[in-house]
């Protein structure tokens, strides 16, 4: 019988989603601008999945005269290639400096310092997820009015620049970090959809000794790996891990662990591996009087195989089984990102529930003279 009261269910929802590549300004963090108000304004953001991968500075007379910004994007083979370069100000400085970002490196801190007079950008300081702190520009004579960025997810997609022949002000744009993520599912799998099936575990055969308690331990582990591909337009990282058991202790228990972690980058395609492990365990004890009870009842008289003392061999053959259902079932719903100002970004999603549904372990036992040759001892 399939005992619903002993079911234990866990699902990891494999999402597949696509959102518009339009770059709505409210979707960006862009508050770190420092410097003067001269020059012409530039706001350059790449919304096709590219990220800022390199910034080069030209310096002269204690401030920044020019900037070159490079964007890169991951191709189908996982290689990052330059997608766009833009220059601001002039390149007639007497020194150059640059910062290169690793494809997986996020910006965890950004501070922009102005010069005193004229009001220009003097220094830009980056802190990154790879424990780097990089200062570009001139450190001496920094004026008040620095700007600290709200870096959001740390994924840089653009720059804010005012420039003429010099860099008057500088800031960056990052993908915003959502305050919460809602998944509204419209369709759910049912037990009928899962179609539980009876699964046999590996049989065990052990000897029953005179005046000794006999213990049989059974364990079965099944592993399954789901490989999914994701194509997201938001910077996001999700982690999931759960484990547990269900059943009746000392009679039969089942347990499983589902663990998965997926990283999503703006416009990149990622491969997600979800490993599911089902562990079915039980311990069965037979009393020390079992052998004597069988002998007194004459149930050993027909046994032909004997032990070293000439006593008939008595073995117990235990065959365990349980019900299992794989929940590789489709669903549809809506994914919603909610931000601090309560603005929302939502889009339809579809995917597959993956998990394991298992019942308590059932066993059948049989006493035999000789254990089968293909059974574990």
TrEMBL record:
<dbReference type="InterPro" id="IPR036404">
    <property type="entry name" value="Jacalin-like_lectin_dom_sf"/>
</dbReference>
<keyword id="KW-0732">Signal</keyword>
<protein>
    <recommendedName>
        <fullName>Jacalin-type lectin domain-containing protein</fullName>
    </recommendedName>
</protein>
<feature type="signal peptide">
    <location>
        <begin position="1"/>
        <end position="22"/>
    </location>
</feature>
<feature type="domain" description="Jacalin-type lectin">
    <location>
        <begin position="28"/>
        <end position="176"/>
    </location>
</feature>
<dbReference type="Pfam" id="PF01419">
    <property type="entry name" value="Jacalin"/>
</dbReference>
<dbReference type="InterPro" id="IPR001229">
    <property type="entry name" value="Jacalin-like_lectin_dom"/>
</dbReference>
